[in-house]
Automatic annotation (TrEMBL):
One of its GO terms (cellular component) is nucleus. Residues 161-179 have a biased composition (Polar residues). Its main location: cytoplasm. Residues 186-529 form the SET domain. The keyword Nucleus applies. InterPro entries: SET-MYND_domain_protein, SET_dom, SET_dom_sf, SMYD4_SET, TPR-like_helical_dom_sf, Znf_MYND. It holds the Pfam family zf-MYND. The keyword Repressor does not apply. Protein-lysine N-methyltransferase. Monomethylates PRMT5, modulating its transcriptional activity. May also act as a histone methyltransferase. Plays a critical role in cardiac development. Acts as a key epigenetic regulator of gene expression during cardiac development via its dual activities as a methyltransferase and negative regulator of HDAC1. Residues 160-179 are annotated as: Disordered. This is Protein-lysine N-methyltransferase SMYD4. Keywords: Cytoplasm, Metal-binding, Methyltransferase, Nucleus, S-adenosyl-L-methionine, Transferase, Zinc, Zinc-finger. Residues 246-285 form the MYND-type domain.
């Protein structure tokens, strides 16, 4: 959840209503963020601190030997049935909850080493064996640990076959900043105009699939799943994002290293653990429960301020205008003015500052656009967090730069930390970017991969934030996580000059690719969330105005709001058909009527909704049975639901696609490849109608269809599907996508059989 927990929101809302009229009026008149924060800080009372403490206790991140033992026992049960992935994840939870240098910690590490061994992760297994011994693994049990260590070393001595592609290309020179990396392709430039503000234009032709921009996150925060510290469900296989991803670089792992002091934060290795502690966790650790209670936006805002430091914030504040953004008065013309990426200058109105902290600070906080009650929630939340942060030593980068006072004490001027974090919290309302990853469902016996895109983190990207919105964008984005060396840099990058590969500094990089052919002078546009293929125009307009404070006038909205489209929307009822004659239904007053003039059939909206709810319930029941491997029962329900759906829904209705996809899943599990493929083709018709012929959703369905044909031995059908799936996955995910690699392997194998 991005915003504070509901209990705290309700408390602050009550505090807002109880303010005296003169206090409310004074708060509403404040526009300077420093003044807003200091006023909010003055309103914090001891009873507020007590209430917040009671709320944050529900999100406890304290170590718990009892829970560590419980997780280890659950891991043992999964290990016995050879579910080594689930076992490793449970052991990791045990590692995080165990106190340092205890027998329980050593047992969790030792047991996890066994799961890693059977996964073939021999280096990771050896690391866990070392950690277990260092934590004091019982001497009478060490023989089996030593035997596993010997087996790992033996496996590692075997010749290793590399699956990594080789290249003879040389890494070209690339201009980079010292701390972060943002790369803009040649032929792409940053511009400013009074109407659009800063935006990015293509200055030469760009083909669909071509990378136009890479940007590194200035900061990111992992999104917690079930934030309340409750007992794991009976199914025993529910693991949230915090259980699967490194809290620093967001890479996936089965062998996490815990924070020695809290149970929540975990890292993919000692390197990330040390780096995170140095940059942010040493100050966040003692307020971990508070950060979970205030939500991801507040957490990320604080982390951005911590990373920047007091000296950098002062420097940036001094060099920017009081309006905190490029002022239209700096320009005499309405024509776009090109900005220099990364050039040092005193006025932000003269250049764009690339991927430095200036790029973050200069984003609009939209103070006036936030309603007074919303501003009050943000400032009281950040003021409370600042008070809680004062329970520990001041961050090194926020120690008084004049060296006044006693070392290790909080000086009054350090309130700038809270004010800066408040500014970033307001900016993140419009500029936070969801970081997504493809999650492959881990189901035994599934011959065809089932995957979905999930949100794993929230980040702030300095250059990506310059892209304006379109409900039908001409770009798509993908993310790379984990600290890794860039194999090839193809772009002109901001600041500095190096001629060697460089590791990512934040661990999270976004790649922006053209999803359509771009022409010179065309603006590069990104979708902020509301997309024309997933949402009606009125809903899109409402959401964009509420969250981003603008009326969308993109081509998709103009088209949907035009007179012809309005009439079509009024009459059409996409995906619904007449039960009497099978013709499409049209909207009519409070219901629907048949579009065929000679048919008089009508149906109310309530009846349609009830039928759709009934079908959805059947689909949900079938999914539940599939998860329990009761496939015959699931198939019976799906056939019944499909028969009913065929009488009221056309083939393009999304529910038809979901039913067909679930049916294909059952047939694939039982090895009936031909039936699975025919049902998946029905699903593809609905997916294409809903998301478009160039969508990633269609690409993933075609990938599954290729798998079905491949497993069924239908070489010709598989080879006919692979090129289109390959094109769409390349367009959206780039050449290193796992699904794309599997497609290439499939194609090579099939061509070898012909």
């Amino acid at each position: 959840m991005d915003l504070p927990c509901p209990e705290w929101v309700r408390y602050v809302e009550q505090k807002w209503t109880e303010l005296k009229p003169e206090a409310t009026e004074r708060f509403c008149c404040l526009t300077d963020i420093d003044a807003i924060f200091n006023y909010g800080l003055s309103l914090i009372r001891p009873e507020d601190l007590n209430v917040f403490s009671r709320i944050s206790e529900k999100y406890s991140v304290q170590k718990s030997p009892e829970r560590a033992s419980e997780f280890r026992q659950q891991g043992n049960l999964s290990f016995k049935v050879r579910d080594y992935t689930t076992a490793a994840l449970y052991y990791s939870k045990g590692v995080c909850h165990a106190d340092k240098n205890t027998e329980e910690l050593s047992l969790c590490y030792a047991n996890r080493s066994a799961a890693l061994f059977y996964h073939g992760l021999y280096k990771e297994c050896l690391e866990d064996i070392r950690r277990s011994l260092e934590a004091g693994y019982p001497s009478h049990l060490q023989d089996k640990l030593r035997a596993r260590q010997t087996a790992c070393l033996s496996q590692l001595k075997k010749p290793e076959i590399s699956n990594q592609p080789t290249t003879n290309n040389q890494t070209p020179p690339c201009q980079k900043s010292r701390n972060t990396r943002s790369c803009i392709s040649p032929g792409v430039s940053v511009y400013f105009s009074p109407e659009k503000g800063r935006h990015i234009l293509a200055m030469e032709n760009k083909t669909a699939g071509e990378v136009v921009l890479e940007d590194e996150a200035f900061c990111c925060v992992l999104i917690p799943g079930n934030k309340l510290n409750t007992v794991t469900n009976k199914g025993g296989k529910t693991f949230n994002t915090e259980d699967r991803y490194c809290h620093h670089c967001l890479s996936q792992s089965l062998s996490f290293v815990p924070c020695p002091n809290c149970s929540y934060v975990r890292f993919c290795g000692e390197s990330c653990q040390k780096d995170a502690w140095q940059h942010w966790h040493q100050w966040e650790c003692h307020i971990g429960a508070d950060l979970l209670a205030i939500g991801v936006l507040g957490h990320l805002a604080l982390r951005v301020a911590l990373k920047a430091g007091q000296n950098e914030v002062k420097r940036v504040k001094k060099s920017t205008s009081e309006e905190d953004h490029v002022t239209c008065s700096s320009y005499k013309s309405d024509l776009p003015v090109k900005l220099s990426l990364g050039d040092p200058c005193g006025e932000i109105s003269d250049c764009y500052h690339g991927n430095s902290y200036m790029g973050i600070y200069s984003l609009l906080p939209h103070v006036a656009q936030h309603s007074p009650s919303s501003r009050f929630l943000l400032v009281i939340t950040m003021a409370m967090l600042y008070r809680r942060l004062q329970g520990g030593p001041p961050p090194d980068m926020w120690a008084s730069c004049e060296n006044k006072g006693v070392s290790g004490t909080w000086e009054p001027e350090m309130s700038m930390l809270g004010a800066t974090a408040l500014r970033h919290m307001m900016q993140l309302w419009c500029n936070a970017q969801a970081v997504t990853a493809v999650m492959v469902k881990e189901e035994s016996g599934m011959a065809v991969q089932s995957s979905s895109e999930i949100r794993i983190a929230t980040a702030i990207f300095p250059v990506l934030s310059l892209l304006n919105h379109s409900c039908s964008p001409n770009t798509n984005i993908s993310f790379t996580t984990g600290f890794q060396t860039d194999p090839l840099n193809q772009f002109v990058c901001s600041e500095g000059h190096v001629d060697h590969p460089k590791t990512s500094c934040s661990g999270v990089t976004v790649t922006v690719r053209a999803s359509k052919d771009l022409t010179p002078g065309q603006e590069i546009l990104h979708c902020y969330g509301p997309h024309c293929s997933r949402m009606e125009v009125n809903e899109r307009q409402r959401l964009l105005l509420e969250q981003y404070y603008f009326h969308c006038n993109c081509q998709a909205c103009q088209s949907d709001l035009s007179e012809g489209s309005q009439k079509a929307t009024e009459n059409a009822a996409p995906g619904l058909k007449c039960v009497k004659c099978g013709k499409p239904l049209w909207s009519h007053m409070d219901g629907y009527k048949c579009s065929w003039p000679s048919c008089d059939h009508q149906i109310t909206s309530a009846d349609v909704q009830n039928k759709l709810k009934g079908l959805q319930c059947l689909l949900d029941k079938a999914f539940h049975l599939i998860e329990q491997h009761r496939l015959d029962e699931a198939l019976k329900i799906l056939k019944s639901a499909s028969s009913e759906a065929n009488s009221i829904l056309t083939e393009i209705h999304p529910l038809q696609g979901e039913l067909a996809d679930a049916t294909a899943r059952v047939y694939a599990t039982t090895g009936e490849w031909s039936l699975a493929a025919s049902n998946l083709k029905r699903s593809i018709v609905a997916i294409q109608a809903q998301f478009g012929e160039d969508s990633i959703e269609l690409g993933r369905q075609l990938f599954k269809l290729a798998q079905l044909h491949f497993n069924g031995g239908d070489c010709g059908a598989a080879l006919s599907v692979i090129p289109r799936a390959h094109k769409l996955l390349s367009l959206h995910c780039g050449p290193h996508c796992e699904e794309l690699q599997e497609l290439c392997e499939m194609e090579r194998c099939l061509q070898g059989l012909l």
